[in-house]
Design a protein that fits this description.
Elements: E1 4-5, H1 15-19, E2 25-29, E3 34-38, H2 48-52, E4 58-59
The structure holds iron/sulfur cluster (2 copies).
One iron/sulfur cluster binds next to helix 2.
Amino acid sequence: MPVSVDVEKCNACLKCADVCPNQSIEKANNGTKDHAKIIEENCIDCYVCIAECEQGALNQ
Ligand code: SF4
Ligand code: SF4
């Protein structure tokens, strides 16, 4: 399963992107706020990002 981002919880700190081994997370904006976005074609499902997110904004 690709990682999903709970945009409401995400504060766009991008700590998840810093630890992603495959550069699979970028910043995006949904028109209301900045948030992390998973580049699904690059994601290798390692879930390192989920452990790093202090906001609980990432889920399998
Ligand atoms: S670590 Fe969590 S709060 Fe920070 S950008 Fe990533 S998903 Fe958002
Ligand atoms: S699961 Fe792994 S590869 Fe996919 S976005 Fe998270 S850290 Fe990156």
